[in-house]
User: Fold this.
Amino acid sequence: MNETELLAILARGEDSRHQFKENISNVDSLAAELVAFSNSGGGLLIVGATDAGEVLGLTTADICRLNQLLSNAASQSVRPLIHPISLNIQTARGLLMVIQTPDGLNRPYTDNQGRIWVKSGADKWHVTTREEMQRLFQQAGLIYADEVPVSGTTVADIDHRALEEYFENRYREPLEDTDQSLEQLLRNMGLARNGVLTLAGLLLFAKKPERFRPAFMLKAVALPGRELHETHYLDSEDIFDRLAGQYQRGLAFVKRNLHYVQGDQGINSLGILEIPEIVFQELLVNALIHRDYFISAPIRVLVFSDRVEISNPGHLPNHLTVEQIRYGLSNMRNPLLASHATHLLPYRGLGSGIPRALKAWPSIELVDDRAGNQFKVIIPRSGVN
Assistant:
């Protein structure tokens, strides 16, 4: 980094990746900043400038003291260890220190009091809610929502017929031929733990999963225009079901609220769907399998006069980008659900769903809304494809 690049950052102001400090004298304060950056994608802490980006400058004595403070904070006041890099850059207005903290590979990081800090805009905040802590552990690959036991459930909540059909289809033998008890079988398949259903077991095979997780449903609404209205709609359905049922009923909802066009077919034909059905097959499955189940909210399917929107709770996991998923790169948020879904849903895995949908309808827009913590797919009805 040179002076021009540094001054350009100061001119743009603070954000989630850039923090300005006039000076630092407290090791705990510095440790908190390092922890927040490491838990939130990394960033630059620029010392010697005001919050507004005005250069005040540092003395050589300040630089020596800050380097020692940085060494102490990174090695003694942070767990696990963080390895920041410091740069001293001379500008026409004064000397600045730039502390570069990498994105942490061993999240979540804590300070020496065990507190977890994350970035929130230009500020940082102390994580205290269970949901946010779960998400941090999820990002680190230490916990998966689909493996968590669902309190209040038992193996008696399983729809035995649905499990039988799945077992015979996948393993090519009747369920009753196995020498395992139902509880042992479910445990070995990752669908139960100590007699309690995991979230995967509940969503895939429970009789009525909405009894225990009513938020994990699919809410579908068809509207007459281009805006969302709370009371005026053409069709609406709250879909409570197992994942396979949500997929089938969600697909049926979309199909009955789209137009059928004649195309090159004969005059007596039924017509073809205005948007290829494979688009919704891929996108609905993607939503059900890859949504963030640590967020208690439904998947939303909105059919407008000019577009269809499918909104998943949770932005793209970790630092996966829209461009990466366009080319098939994936990050498994719910690996247990995904492993069973290949035998229950038209799901192929390997990140192939989004590219297949884009190939069938190239005008699809993908929106990773990190501020709103959701991933939205917008399928134009009138776009050129």
Remarks:
- The mean pLDDT is 91.
- The chain has twelve helices and 18 strands.
